[in-house]
Amino acid sequence: MSHAETHALRLGPDVDPVIADERARIRPLGALLVNQIAAGEVIERPASVVKELVENALDAGARSVVVDLDDGGMTRIAITDDGVGIPRDELALAVAPHATSKISEAEDLDRIATMGFRGEALASIASVSRLTLLSRERGAEEAWSLSVEGSNFGDPVPAAAPEGTQLVVRDLFFNTPARRKFLKTAATERGRCLDWIRDLAIARPAVGFTVRTDGREAISLPSGQSPLDRVLAVLGREVGSQLLEVSVDRFDDARGVLIWGLVGRPAIARATAAAQRVFLNGRTIRDKVTQHALREAYRGLIEPGRYPTAVLMIEMAPSAVDVNVHPAKLEVRFRDQSMVHQAVLHGVREALRAADLTRDAASASRPTFDVPRFGPGDVDRSAEAFVQRVRDLRDDAERAVRPVLDVDAIRGAVHTAVPHEVPASTTTAPSPRPERFLQVHDSYLVVEDERGVLLIDQHALHERVMFESLLERVGAGTLESQSLLAPLTFSCEPDRLDALESLAPALARIGLIVEPLGPRTAGIRSAPTLLFARNVDPAAFAADLLDRAATDGFAPDPENALREILDMMACKAAVKAGDRLADDEIRALLEQRERVERSSSCPHGRPTSVRLSLSSLEKLFERR
Q1: CA distance 205 to 223
Q2: How far is Cα 543 from Cα 534, in angstroms, rounded to an integer?
Q3: What are 249's strand-pairing partners?
Q4: Amino acid 496: pLDDT
Q5: Residue 110 pLDDT greater than 50, yes or no
Q6: Of 15, 133, 228, 498, which has the highest C-beta tally within 10 A?
């Protein structure tokens, strides 16, 4: 059977494969096909077009960007800006492949500071659409227009337009119908376009954005906003009181990192990571390093499977990061990943540590929010310091980073956005008064504090206290254990026994020695004394551990696996709902609450306490 016949049988009778045989020759591809292949990497859908063209507008120094979308962008996309414009003799070059004003030599790739730099976006878009480019250079007397369809375009013609540039993209993928079939509904494509514009708008609060979809205004953001106002305008002002400020300055001698941002309290964690936005030198990025740092910062404060709200603006010298690793420039590669991870982790942890994270009982199940409540002048001072440090960073020998934040806007708008009469106690946990408490149904504690009444889940709080104590003791050495004269045996399935080998090092650190004694039997030769002291059956505990390992599994790295084991141990040993506590025990537990970090949540991320504020009480009794 011939090579061609073999391919035909494998692919089916209706497929016409390209057969590599002696008649095929290596040949250069046509310019249109080259651009369409490039478009496959850069232009996936209307949102890709919007992203590339708005980024070009920002690189051109636009202070105002207007986006018009028809049919979700599939029929028409128009991007209008008031940037520097393009002179007549460069219009044709603007749509030529890999023609750009942003880099000129190989060394420039090591210090990229603009949003776009490859010069392939317009050529790729033009190859799969009908494109009109209209531009008037600043100071020029007239505008010029250039129409492109595929690889065909004529000479620029005079036109009337204000200074700036307008790009109109019609009939996306009209000449590549197979690509168009992969597009979703107009509503879905429109939503993706709006998501990108919101991201770009957060990164550039000084720039005004207007978006119209099928003639109706969908987004209207004025120019000159502060970073805080822009974040609230995009995320919703109702989340203001649930946001905490993050500020990190680890930049020195043209190296390091500078971070400013806002992160959400655990109460507004979401089911997806859609509310996490990270920007690097004004560029939206999707980065595993920062995502992992965020996840670690919230470990034990939110339930597994939920994601914190976060907006982080990261500034670094361009040479410290490689942005040329992804066609759509979404992924980046930090030269020093550990440094960035530690900076994000430390900054977010400090913001969470400094705040009172006790949830409001009135909104514990479905949060409702007030106006922003930051400490007096804190955001004003920190944001201004961040901007000044960004300015210093951009004055270094490699200067190339475009301004992300507007200094005057921050000095003015942030100041007026933050109510300064809010007392400083809004960010620090007030001390309860242990002499005044009540145990309810042998499960919950009611305690008065300075802002109202705390309702405490005694099991969840004791679990957090025990977990932190166990973590500290294991960090200082192995937990105290008791050797057994005869092993405690228990039955377990073979797959449970298989988990013993990987868990053995972590179990040894807590003083639990478990060995297989048969095909369906294991024995405990040593167990932590804490289990005996808290009347926890070591055999039942070990069986639960092995069940968890065989079904859900533990974290792959040893330290986090150890934390999960300690979490289970604390849960088993903690007081239970229904346990009657003596007054001295309650006082001791409340005093430990004040000393233990993250006492507002148990290790699983569930709240240990909620607050019924005085204002909520007044509303309940119709006093206000």
Answers
A1: 7
A2: 17
A3: 258
A4: 83
A5: no
A6: 228
pLDDT higher than threshold 50 for residue 590: yes
Both tokens assigned to 556: 């792959």
The rounded distance, in Å, linking the Cα atoms of 96 and 536 is 73
Q: Which residue in 445, 370, 365 sits closest to 606, CA to CA?
A: 365
Residues 66, 55: Cα–Cα separation, whole Å: 13
Question: What pLDDT score was predicted for residue 408?
Answer: 42
Q: Where are the beta strands (DSSP E) in 389-499?
A: 437-440, 444-449, 452-457, 481-491
Instruction: For 579, list phi and psi in degrees, rounded to 5.
Output: -85, 125
Token pair, residue 329, equals: 């420039």
CA atoms within 13 A on the CB side of 491: 0
φ/ψ of residue 95, rounded to 5: -105, 5
Residues 303, 301: Cα–Cα separation, whole Å:
7
Query: To 5 degrees, how large is the angle CA 156–CA 157–CA 160?
Result: 125
The structural domains of the chain, with segments of one domain joined by +, span: 31-221, 233-422, 444-595
Hey, do 31-221 and 444-595 end up sharing a CATH topology, with the first three levels equal?
no
| 3-class secondary-structure state, position 529 | helix
N- to C-terminal Cα separation, the chain: 90
DSSP string, 272-308: SGGGEEEEETTEEE--HHHHHHHHHHTBTTB-TT-B-
* Beta carbons of 487 and 471 less than 8 angstroms apart: no
Q: Mean pLDDT in the chain?
A: 81
Q: Could you give the residue ranges of the DSSP H alpha helices within 477-523? A: 494-498, 500-509
| Backbone torsions φ then ψ of 602, nearest 5 degrees | -80, 170
* Fold for the domain defined by 444-595: Ribosomal Protein S8; Chain: A, domain 1 (3.30.1370)
Q: Give residue-wise pLDDT tens across range 370-429.
A: 333 343 344 545 555 666 556 555 554 344 333 333 334 322 333 333 332 222 333 444
Q: Which 3 state secondary structure label does DSSP give 64?
A: strand
CB 243 within 8 A of CB 228: no
Looking only at the bridges linking them, the beta strands covering 208-213 and 255-264 are unpaired
Model confidence pLDDT, tens digit, residues 151-160: 677 899 999 9
Helices and strands: H and E segment counts in the chain: 21, 24
pLDDT attached to residue 391: 54
- Close Cβ partners of 56 (under 8 Å, ≥ 6 residues apart): 115, 116, 121, 122
What CATH fold (topology level) applies to the domain 31-221? Heat Shock Protein 90 (3.30.565)
For the domain made up of 233-422, give the CATH fold: Ribosomal Protein S5; domain 2 (3.30.230)
pLDDT band at residue 19 under the 50/70/90 scheme: very low
pLDDT tens-digit readout, 309-328: 999 999 988 888 877 655 55
Query: Side chain identity at 317, as an amino acid letter?
Result: A
